[in-house]
Amino acid sequence: MMHEAAGHMGSGLRRWALFGVLAFLVPILLSHRLPAAADPEHSAKGQDVLAIAADGGKVFGTAYFADLPEDAPLILLFHQARSNGRGEYGPLIGWLNGLGFRVIAWDQRSGGSLYGSTNRTVASHGGSTGYCQAYPDLEAALAFARSHYHPRKLLVWGSSYSGGLVFKLAARHPDEIDGVVAFSPAFAVCGTNRDWRKVQLPILVVWPDTEAGGRYIPDIIAGLRKKGAQVIIVRRGRHGSSTLVDARTGHDMSRYRRAVAAALRSMVMRP
Fold first, then answer.
1. What is the pTM (predicted TM-score) of this model?
2. CB 154 within 8 A of CB 176
3. 153-209 residue pLDDT tens
4. What is the spatial distance between Cα 50 and Cα 57, in angstroms, rounded to a whole number?
5. 255: helix, strand or coil
6. Are the C-beta atoms of residues 184 and 248 closer than 8 Å to each other?
7. Considering Cα of 268, then 46, then 161, then 176, what sign does the dihedral take?
8. Helix/strand/coil percent split, the chain, to 5
């Protein structure tokens, strides 16, 4: 009996030892196969595109269309200061594709390597410019998207300084844009404080709570809501579009992603 019990005990110990080895090795093996969730370079497969601005400057972008149909709505994504399209929006590309949106993440001439990718447009210009000097890049991106993809519905999405510039773009091209999305928009530069008042399209504006009480923002929020815009104030958010990224805020932002998703869908469902 003792020998039999010892045999069972030895067999059990061997099974637990094998289980322990597998428990240690499997996560390591899987980590080599699965890309990091917030890896800006590998979060989705994209195709590089090139637009030419009115001044002849090159404007680089990356299109992420997944397997979506040609009539799927298109979002043009523009980044914040010192940033770039692929780096800033890398963690959000798969989510947006999953919602049914084709997206193009653009590099403007005012930007840099924030969030881990190279700003190709800045590199082609030999350095970053001021915020207002980047506006022709948005014009070029819109013209490129319209002429190459003929989207049934098109939204423009800006972050920080480009969050202000997308209102300038929409004010000048109301018949070519179906909705405006802006995260932490900078309305104090480039005349954009006048532009948002002119836009009659569906609007979604998102601020973190740490910015919503700023010097002039409460009055803008009131004005936006008066004209029917949707305004979301994010608790424990972060500046710009990164407020939707858990890894960048350190918090679960799924509640706010759901709210943004609902707003995006409502924009493209309008006749």
1. 0.84
2. yes
3. 999 999 999 999 999 999 999 999 999 999 999 998 899 999 999 999 999 999 999
4. 10
5. helix
6. no
7. negative
8. 50, 15, 35
Strand partners, 155: 75, 179
Strands 47-52 and 58-64, sheet pairing:
antiparallel
Query: In whole angstroms, how far apart are CA 79 and each of 19, 34, 134, 217, 250?
Result: 47, 27, 11, 20, 20
Q: Quick check: 183 and 89 in contact, CB under 8 A? A: no
3-class secondary-structure state, position 251: coil
Phi, psi of 30 (to 5 degrees): -65, -35
Query: 10-36 burial, b for 16+ CB within 10 Å, e for fewer?
Result: eeeeeeeeeeeeeeeeeeeeeeeeeee
From the list 226, 220, 211, 52, the residue with the least C-alpha distance to 144 is 52
- Cβ contacts of residue 221 below 8 Å, gap of 6+? 205, 207, 212, 231
Beta bridge partners of 51: 59
Q: Rounded to whole angstroms, how far apart are CA atoms 108 and 124?
A: 11
Q: Count CA atoms within 13 Å of residue 115 on its CB side.
A: 27
Of residues 210, 258, 203, the one with CA closest to residue 237: 210
Integer Cα distance of 144 and 25 in angstroms: 48
For residue 217, which amino acid is it?
Answer: I
| pLDDT < 70: residue spans in the chain | 1-43
